[in-house]
């Protein structure tokens, strides 16, 4: 039980749900250049929240996590498309499992 409480103190879920970060900060956090982040968005791999052409792109926690995971897979030798598919499938599986858990509550 103590380990679960300790782990919970490292994650502020309410903060993560509100987290919106500008593209420059995302680049600093992830180590992925802004140009590459824009390209991944153009391909539909990630999505940003921005008001239109010329405005700053902002990314939520889920998209930041996707960027980190995809970048790790690229370093392991995956192609961009294969890495994006793998991350998308993992997220879909997690969502399905969480949905099952929620339905059993």
From TrEMBL:
Top-level taxon of origin: Bacteria
Keywords recorded for this protein, A-Z: DNA-binding, Repressor, Transcription, Transcription regulation
HTH merR-type domain location: 23-89
Keyword check for Transcription regulation: yes
Pfam families (alphabetical): MerR_1
Gene3D superfamilies in UniProt: 1.10.1660.10
PANTHER family registered for this protein in UniProt: MERR-FAMILY TRANSCRIPTIONAL REGULATOR (PTHR30204:SF69), REDOX-CYCLING DRUG-SENSING TRANSCRIPTIONAL ACTIVATOR SOXR (PTHR30204)
Protein name, per record: MerR family transcriptional regulator
Organism of origin: Oceanobacillus luteolus
